[in-house]
Design a protein that fits this description.
6-stranded mixed sheet, about 290 residues, 2 helices, 5-stranded mixed sheet
Length: about 290
Amino acid sequence: MDTLHNEPFLSYSDSEKSGEGYISKEFDIYQNGSLIISRVRTTHEGLFTAIIFYSKTEDPVYYYVRVKTIVKPLDPFPEIDNCSLQLAICLQPFRKTLRLTCVVRNARPEVPLGWKVVSAFEKRNMSSHLSVIRNNTVFTSFATVSQHSLSNFSLLSLFVCETNSVPGVYDKHESLVLVQNDTHFNVKALEPIAIYIQQHSPLKLNCSKNDILWLVWERRYGTGDEFQPLLSAVLLDSTVVDKYDGGYELYEEGTLVVKDAATKNEGTYKCVGSDGIKDTIVIYEVVVYGK
């Protein structure tokens, strides 16, 4: 029964189905009385009442079902502004204008968002600016953290945008952001470790002897060039790796590997790693001989 109009839109009696809902094919009914909605729309959200008459002499039994509809966002996980949806980790250099904004677009119901900073011991809630825009029957939610909130952390910090779990809206409820803040660190003062490797030999560069939970490997091709990212990784419950250059692999404990070293692999390599408590940074100068 439609409680809004208080009149039956679907009936089932003596194996016969009837009612406006059945004729329009919007609804159907099983023999046990279960309702079928042929194609769910947001207009179906509400309270439905089923009235079952077990006999002519007994009072009918009422069953109430609350229907809530969901609309899945097009994106498979929360979107981070200025980050590629093709990558699992959003890598951002720290800058004075940096703001991290997490967005869930055109979802139903409204999806609550929040930012957390991760360490080896915990995920800690961060102060975020939250807002929601409604567009007809769907909602777009925003959560933003400012540059000031991001500047007080380590050399390489892991931030997570999490959605409060709304069943059915997302399979993946979080997005990862690595922020590299070396504004107070003089990389030039760090003495590179010289590595001489024979051509066609495997090249292996260790990131740290300490436990690290996330890292970024970078490479500089010439002394005057900027470091360019090769890959980033988060090594928590499951390992997540993004590669920006297909010629490199990541092995256990953050080791960077080239299986068949060539002259094109010469250059300066830098690894920055952290667990949210302690940071590590190492630089290698790689020379390939036997050309």
